[in-house]
Write a structure and sequence with these properties.
Mediates both low-affinity uptake and efflux of sugar across the membrane. It comes from Flemingia macrophylla. One of its GO terms (cellular component) is plasma membrane. The chain is mostly helical and about 260 residues long. Helices cover about 70% and strands about 0% of the residues. It is globular and about 50 Å long. It starts with a helix and ends in a 25-residue tail after the last helix.
Length: about 260
């Protein structure tokens, strides 16, 4: 008997949850280093703030949508928890100036920005229009997050080195985008599906660049952070993550890490 499209959507969403879970955990080597050195100097808080905001957006979207939104809520609830923990650790060990800028960023984006969108959609929109406004907000934000790998690809082409673009990271982020694309497509939810087409395309391009430049001479190791999808990773530690690591899924779903947005 043929499997119903909603069942397939659940399967893709479940796999997407699993991959996104690993993506969210990818910055752990960075925070172990911060804890070990008792210092966050040299690291940035922006990717974590953005990842937290992205998870908050998708949870709100899922709560308004209600239908077939359980998997969105589960992974982005975990995302909110883990990103909050990352930010707390970051703030504990960050220099005073960095702490102040991080607090300002959190207030402007995650408190006032999200609060303004929440109040405006609750009181100025109703029904399908409310869902549409939230969905478009998530879509536009996700597209901007998925465009972040452009800076890494530019660096790879310029230096002819893939030192800061691990193949496994690009692979897992690409698979993650595929899972959430089919999840959205099968549910006819294009706010989820469309941004992940961009994530898939950029992921494929990154893997092709890796194959082209993988044998190029690697420059001297340096501590570098690149924004690619929503998180921050100390690239020098990245190879210690996962079977050969992902990064941070989707919204729902990253430096070398992407907002992942996980979705």
């Amino acid at each position: 008997m043929a499997i119903h499209h909603e069942t397939w959507a659940f399967i893709f969403g479940l796999i997407g949850n699993a991959i996104s879970f690993m993506v969210f955990l990818a910055p752990l080597p960075t925070f172990f280093q911060i804890y070990k050195k008792k210092s966050a100097e040299g690291f940035q808080s922006l990717p974590y703030v953005v990842a937290l905001f992205s998870s908050m957006l998708w949870i709100y979207y899922a709560l308004v949508k209600k239908d077939a939104s359980f998997l969105l809520i589960t992974i982005n609830s975990f995302g909110c928890v883990i990103e909050t923990i990352y930010l707390i650790i970051f703030l504990v060990y960050a220099p005073s100036k960095t702490k102040l800028s991080t607090f300002k960023l959190l207030l402007s984006l995650n408190v006032f920005g999200f609060g303004a969108m929440l109040l405006s959609t609750l009181y100025l929109t109703t029904g399908s229009k409310r869902l549409s406004v939230i969905g478009w907000t998530c879509l536009v934000f996700n597209i901007s997050v998925f465009a972040a790998p452009l800076c890494i690809m530019k660096r790879v082409i310029k230096t002819k080195s893939v030192e800061f673009m691990p193949f496994s990271l690009s692979f897992f982020l690409t698979i993650n985008a595929v899972m959430w694309f089919f999840y959205g497509l099968l549910l006819k939810d294009y706010y989820i599906a469309l941004p992940n087409t961009l994530g898939f395309v950029f992921g494929i391009i990154q893997m092709v660049l890796y194959l082209i430049y993988r044998k190029a001479k690697t420059p001297e190791p340096t501590k570098l952070q690149e924004l690619t999808n929503g998180h921050i990773i100390d690239v020098g530690k990245l190879n210690t993550m996962l079977p050969s690591e992902p990064n941070q899924v989707t919204r729902i779903g990253v430096v070398t890490e992407t907002p992942t947005d996980i979705v």
